[in-house]
């Protein structure tokens, strides 16, 4: 015995077809939407990135740093040269005596000047044979070398006389009166200390003679000495 479709089941198939068609259309639409989103979303994201790159244009502000480099040019400093001590030029023939005040600073040669740094009254002591102790004067003479090289002082001679008749004074050898060193360096001052016996009542006129060399005049510091 064969079975025949009943009248109730035959109409279900057309109804199912009516549901499948809209579902397929919806699926197609969904796929299209997904494709559109995938296609257009990178373009929108890419348009944002260019706006960020110009912000790096602020880096040229580092160009201000070169302005600090010229300040280094101020570091080199020129060494200061010693200023020559002013002196009063003296005029005279070699070996000729030229008197100057005790407070003066005469120039004895080119770039060489001298001065009487100090003078005082002392009681001289005779330590060497033939020396006679007694009232004396102690003084220091400076020789200023304003040249660019050392100058020998081996030939420098100092003498003292006093009174109107120019009586020679006797020098006393003393550890406190070492005389001049052998030379004076460039730009330096050499000091020579001496002690000579001079009677106290004969110090109104005292002459301290400085013989520097055979080619220069003899400088004579003239004036009253302490008693």
Describe the protein in words.
It comes from Naasia lichenicola. This is DUF4352 domain-containing protein. Keywords: Membrane, Transmembrane, Transmembrane helix. The protein is an alpha+beta fold and 227 residues long. The protein folds into two domains: 30 residues; 136 residues, Immunoglobulin-like. The protein is built from two helices and 13 strands. A six-stranded mixed sheet has the order 1-3-4-5-11-9, with no helix packed on it. A five-stranded mixed sheet has the order 2-13-12-7-8, with no helix packed on it. It is rod-shaped, with a radius of gyration of 56 Å. About 20% of the residues have low confidence.
What keywords describe this structure?
227 residues; alpha+beta; Immunoglobulin-like; 2 domains; five-stranded mixed β-sheet; 2 helices; transmembrane helix; transmembrane; DUF4352 domain-containing protein
User: What is the chains' assembly state?
Assistant: single chain
Number of domains: 2
Mean pLDDT: 79
Sheet of most strands: 6 strands, mixed
Tell me the CATH topology of the largest domain.
Answer: Immunoglobulin-like
Content-based structural category: alpha+beta
Strand order of the largest sheet: 1-3-4-5-11-9
Please tell me how large the radius of gyration is.
56 Å
CATH architecture of the largest domain: Sandwich
């Amino acid at each position: 015995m064969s079975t025949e479709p009943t009248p109730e089941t035959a109409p279900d198939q057309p109804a199912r077809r009516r549901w499948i068609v809209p579902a397929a259309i919806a699926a197609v639409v969904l796929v299209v939407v997904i494709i559109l989103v995938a296609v257009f979303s990178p373009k929108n994201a890419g348009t944002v990135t260019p706006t960020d790159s110009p912000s790096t244009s602020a880096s040229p502000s580092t160009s201000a740093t070169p302005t600090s480099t010229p300040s280094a040019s101020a570091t080199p400093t020129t060494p200061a040269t010693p200023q020559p001590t002013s002196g009063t030029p003296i005029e005279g023939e070699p070996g000729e005596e030229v008197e100057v005040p005790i407070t003066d600073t005469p120039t004895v040669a080119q770039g060489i000047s001298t001065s009487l740094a100090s003078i005082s009254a002392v009681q001289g002591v005779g330590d060497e044979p033939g020396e006679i102790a007694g009232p004396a004067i102690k003084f220091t003479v400076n020789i200023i070398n304003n040249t660019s090289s050392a100058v020998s002082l081996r030939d420098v001679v100092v003498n003292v006389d006093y009174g109107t008749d120019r009586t020679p004074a006797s020098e006393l050898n003393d550890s406190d009166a070492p005389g001049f060193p052998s030379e004076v360096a460039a730009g330096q001052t050499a000091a020579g200390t001496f002690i000579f016996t001079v009677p106290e009542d004969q110090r109104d006129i005292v002459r301290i003679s400085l013989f520097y060399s055979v080619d220069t005049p003899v400088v004579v510091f003239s004036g009253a000495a302490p008693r």
